[in-house]
From TrEMBL:
Domain (Transketolase-like pyrimidine-binding) ranges: 631-844
Lineage, broadest ranks: Eukaryota, Metazoa, Spiralia, Lophotrochozoa, Platyhelminthes
Keyword Heme: no
GO BP term, pick one: glycolytic process
Gene Ontology CC terms: mitochondrion; oxoglutarate dehydrogenase complex
Domain of life: Eukaryota
Protein name per the record: 2-oxoglutarate dehydrogenase, mitochondrial
Entry EC number(s): 1.2.4.2
One GO MF term: metal ion binding
PANTHER family xrefs: 2-OXOADIPATE DEHYDROGENASE COMPLEX COMPONENT E1, 2-OXOGLUTARATE DEHYDROGENASE
Function: The 2-oxoglutarate dehydrogenase complex catalyzes the overall conversion of 2-oxoglutarate to succinyl-CoA and CO(2). It contains multiple copies of three enzymatic components: 2-oxoglutarate dehydrogenase (E1), dihydrolipoamide succinyltransferase (E2) and lipoamide dehydrogenase (E3).
Principal place of residence: mitochondrion
NCBIfam families: 2oxo_dh_E1, PRK09404.1, PRK12270.1
């Protein structure tokens, strides 16, 4: 037991007094120290002097009265004061001062004992979870658990306490609630109650949270006597839910014994836990739940939490059934769904969405958060009281996948917080075949959650009542504080990684125990029968009832003629596709008055707003452009966003530096130079009734933030949702989201998304990591066939857009950017857009557009033909037709002028690379029948667009221009390279000179 020696007591008190005297600047004492305990008592005394013993009341009163350090405390001298009282109601010593005032002083033994009890209580609260009996298999794993016993680990001096000391009654401090209505308890009873609260089957880890109110709330939820008890009816409900969870897995195992299903055996209590979170949250007002989870237990969640009709689920096991609609589909344990139902416990309607996701563990986390935030935004649910997310994790992935930490760091950010997520970690205590002792460096797999002060509630999954209590606390915490909470469900896998795996190869001792271990349903049934809550007959009846439900669904599933992929949508867009002609191209131009109105707002600030001098010049420049009816890149973007906002479309732009723009061109958020956090967003002030423009700098994350914006785009199609990279190649850190969700989401899950990726791209001599957005990767993932030339009829363009998996563009004018952004929202369907955005073109005078290019009959140009001398001269005299994309166009034009080949070389810009504009390229080929065709790019030959463009142009010539003299497209650009760009400026310039020379060569 922690004791303060008499010789050091005065020193401890003097340290406290000095700390108090300098409280304005001094750091508080650490929790668990002697001074820390005294500081806790002092805080309690300030609220109520009667809350501490009279001796401490006297001491604190003298301190506050101004006693010099060391003078408030005097060692007791009165004879006859007993230090062996049976109670720790601190025994005061007394003396009479010269003026006759009786003064009380705490004797040293009483202070020692009081501090010792504080230390014991704090030790259990802070470290009890280290020795809680959390493992159902009773296998000691991790550095914190041992065989010495909890009391020895928690307090090394406790074993030295004399037997008679254990019988003493101690006054309980306000830092614990284990006494209930009692203010004094015997020391042995204090320890017994602390053991039951903190060292049994729940390990509550929360004392690291630096918020007193939150810690007090959690202590109340676990320490209050009787708080964990549940009624007989609640026990029967829990048993029924365990029956459904367990019998569902057993049914699948019987019917499809050779199928992988990633069942929940060993963690069956997860289903009652999830249902409890939903029940409690529904009682507290939540109406919509978004669930992101890995593959283990997904079928059970779909069946018993989301209540997917079982016949629709069972038919997924029939490999002969073909899809009756679009999409390739996905394996059944990747699928999602959305379902509205009545919660039978409170008769409230709830919507439950389980998000579809790939095998890439934890990738769904930010997607789920983005979808939840979006739903909260559209509902006006500013505090997250109506919509919430539940994320399920595996233990190895939770600590091993960096996106978990990235997503946690979004949890309290203004434009990303979903106001609390309930995380449930299904802690198998093994990752596939890897022992946790070689898989992580932290004591717990959940330690990553400590970075956001989320309470972590470890619980033994073989004790369902404790699991339910933890689930209830987690739901109430989320509702009370709007912050994340983690349930660490310590369980095991009864089978291997999947049903076909042999776990004995790598975990022989663990699986010997598992084979002998009863499942949680058996254990809980035995408990309830022994206490008389249920009978065996009642259990048999409930089991048979659910078995019949499964058998009936199995029979009905046989009559299903085919699977509908649309039935598995986690984000249905009700009514969006109705009445829309998929082959009708939208009009994207606006009126001149609309441009002028947006431009005026974009170039002014409110009266009294102190703008940076440099931005005053920027706004004057905008006004001059407006006067001349010209738009640079920033103005064209503002016109696109502003016009959509005034038409009622929400616009959201997110990324690391999007408010200003990485290249300081955007400035959509203006900052008052004299007031902190005083900002002005012009585009939110165009007119009354407009939609909301959200432009928000993000955390320094690509993976989580891109996933978040993808999830945001899934909830409502009537919005322009964009993620912008700081530099284009930074998208590679989010490659998992791009590969598994953005490029393939519609094919796998019939899930459309209009997400826009804005990727700064261009070789400006900035070196390998700031040049290329890796255009070639996106083109490689486009699903159009280079060997198939579509029918070039009047529906060709829209049919292409409808059939492609995404659009890949590299536009060169503000007007085209304007039309492309508007087209993204006005199309009758949704596809992701990958856009290579410029750097040098942001301010290039030649890269400007007139207002006429955004009004009238103007529209997006998939290909911009040569508009210079070759277009006016005799096309038959043109000896070379250069096709290119992006900023290299402007370099080619300058080089053509320098070499005097204006009449003989035509330069066309392919603005939409995928889907490839066959019809417009064919038009250019026919216009210049004798010209050699060459593709020019600034990227290296093994990068950029070359390998995408080459077969398409050659096949187009072969099929539609058989009489051309020159029937193959050639290449001009940088040679192949392993690095994306040269790091040496001189080499960079030499490479440019060489490929420009090649492009200008007539042969």
């Amino acid at each position: 037991m922690l004791r303060v020696k008499p010789s050091s007591l005065a020193r401890v008190l003097r340290a406290f007094e000095r700390r108090l005297a300098s409280s304005a600047t001094a750091e508080p004492f650490s929790s668990g120290t002697s001074c820390g305990y005294i500081e806790d008592m002092y805080a309690a005394w300030l609220k109520d002097p009667n809350s501490v013993h009279q001796s401490w009341n006297s001491y604190f009163s003298r301190v506050v009265a101004g006693a010099a350090p060391g003078q408030a405390y005097t060692s007791p001298f009165a004879a006859g004061v007993s230090s062996s009282s049976s109670s720790l109601a601190l025994q005061p010593s007394r003396r009479v001062s010269a003026d006759g005032v009786v003064e009380h002083f705490a004797d040293e033994k009483s202070i020692e004992d009081h501090l010792a009890v504080q230390a014991i209580i704090r030790s259990y609260q802070a470290r009890g979870h280290n020795v809680a009996r959390l493992d159902p298999l009773d296998i000691t794993r991790g550095s914190l658990q041992g065989s010495a016993g909890s009391t020895a680990i928690l307090n090394k001096d406790l074993s030295a306490i004399a037997k008679e000391d254990m019988e003493k009654r101690f006054r309980l401090p306000q830092t614990t609630l284990i006494g209930g209505e009692e203010v004094e308890l015997q020391l042995k009873e204090i320890i017994n109650r602390l053991e039951n609260v903190y060292c049994k089957y729940i390990g509550a880890e929360f004392m690291f949270i630096n918020n007193h109110e939150q810690c007090e709330w959690l202590r109340e939820k676990f320490e209050t006597p009787g708080v964990m008890s549940i009624t007989p009816d609640e026990k029967r409900l829990l048993l029924a839910r365990l029956i459904r969870s367990t019998r569902f897995e057993e049914f699948l195992a019987r019917k499809w014994s050779a199928e992988k299903r990633f069942g929940l055996e060993g963690a069956e209590v997860m289903i009652p836990a999830m249902k409890t979170v939903i029940d409690v949250s529904s009682d507290l007002g939540v109406e919509s739940f978004n669930i992101g989870m890995p593959h283990r237990g997904r079928l059970n969640v779909l069946a018993n939490v989301a209540r997917k009709p079982l016949e629709n689920l069972f038919c997924q096991f029939d490999s002969k059934l073909k899809a009756m609609d679009e999409g390739s589909g996905d394996v059944k344990y990747h699928l999602g769904m959305c379902h509205e139902r009545i919660n039978r416990l409170n008769n409230k309607k709830v919507k439950i969405s389980v998000l579809a996701n790939p095998s890439h563990l934890e990738a769904v986390d930010p997607v789920c958060q983005g979808k939840t935030y979006s739903e909260q935004f559209y509902r006006g649910d500013k505090d997250g009281k109506k919509v919430m997310s539940i994320l399920l994790h595996g233990d190895a992935a939770f600590c091993g996948q960096g996106v978990v930490l990235e997503t946690f760091h979004l949890s309290d950010l203004p434009n990303y917080s979903t106001h609390g997520t309930v995380h449930i970690v299904v802690n198998n205590q093994v990752g596939f075949t890897t022992d946790p002792r070689v898989a992580r460096s932290s004591p717990y797999c959940t330690d990553v959650a400590r970075v956001v002060n989320a309470p972590i509630l470890h619980v033994n999954a073989d004790h369902p009542e404790e699991v339910i209590h933890v689930a209830r606390v987690a739901a109430e915490w989320r509702a009370k504080f709007g912050k994340d909470v983690v349930i660490d469900l310590v369980c095991y896998r009864r089978n291997g990684h999947n049903e076909m795996d042999e776990p004995m190869f790598t975990q022989p001792l663990m699986y010997k125990k598992i084979k002998e271990h009863k499942n949680v349903l058996q254990l809980y049934l035995e408990k309830l029968i022994s206490e008389g809550t249920v009978t065996q007959a009642e259990y048999d009846e409930e089991s048979q009832r659910y078995d019949k439900v499964c058998e009936d669904a199995f029979t009905n599933a046989k009559s299903v003629k085919g699977v509908r992929n649309r039935d598995w949508l986690d984000s249905p867009w009700d009514g969006f596709f109705e009445g829309r002609d998929a082959m009708k191209a939208p009009a994207t131009s606006v009126t001149l008055d609309r441009l002028n109105k947006i431009g005026q707002v974009f170039s002014t600030v409110p009266q009294g707003f102190k703008l940076h001098p440099g931005l005053k010049r920027t706004l004057r420049g905008r006004a001059e452009l407006l006067e001349h009816e010209q738009a640079d890149w920033a103005m064209g973007e503002a016109f696109a966003f502003g016009s959509l906002l005034t038409e009622g479309y929400h616009v959201r732009l997110s990324g690391q530096d999007v408010e200003r723009g990485t290249f300081s061109h955007r400035h959509h958020v203006l900052h008052d130079q004299e007031k902190d956090l005083a900002t002005y967003v012009p585009l939110n002030n165009i007119e009354q009734g407009q939609a909301t423009y959200t432009v928000c700098n993000s955390s320094l994350s690509e993976y989580a933030v891109m996933g978040f914006e993808l999830g945001y785009s899934l909830n409502d199609p009537n919005a322009l949702i964009m993620w912008e990279a700081q530099f284009g190649d930074f998208n590679n850190t989010a490659q998992c989201i791009i590969d598994q969700f953005v490029s393939s989401g519609q094919q796998k899950w019939v899930r459309q998304s209009g997400l826009v990726l804005l990727l700064p791209h261009g070789y400006e001599g900035m070196g390998p990591e700031h040049s290329s957005a890796r255009l070639e990767r996106f083109l490689q993932m486009s699903n159009d066939d280079p060997d198939h030339i579509p029918v070039l009829d009047e529906d060709f363009m829209m049919q292409q857009l409808h059939d492609i998996n995404w659009f890949v563009c590299n536009v060169t004018t503000p007007a085209n950017y304007f039309h492309l952004m508007r087209r993204q929202v006005l199309l009758p369907f949704r596809k992701p857009l990958v856009l290579m955005t410029p750097k040098s073109l942001l301010r290039l005078p030649e890269a400007r557009s007139s207002f006429a290019e955004m009004t009238g009959d103007s529209s997006f140009q998939r290909l911009i033909p040569d508009q210079g001398p070759p277009a006016k001269a005799d096309p038959k005299e043109v000896v070379k037709l250069l096709l290119c994309t992006g900023k290299v166009y402007y370099e080619l034009v300058k080089e053509r002028e320098r070499t005097g080949q204006d009449d003989t070389i035509a330069i066309c810009r392919v603005e939409q690379i995928s889907p490839f504009p066959y019809d417009l390229v064919l038009k250019e080929l026919n216009k210049y029948p004798f010209a050699r065709v060459q593709w020019v790019q600034e990227e290296h030959k093994n990068m950029g667009s070359w390998f995408y463009v080459q077969p398409r142009v050659n096949n187009l010539i072969r099929s539609h221009c058989p009489d051309r003299t020159h029937r193959h497209v050639s290449y001009a650009g940088r040679p192949p390279s392993a690095s994306a760009a040269a790091g040496n400026k001189q080499l960079h310039l030499m490479e440019i000179a060489q490929f420009l020379k090649d492009a200008m060569s007539p042969v």
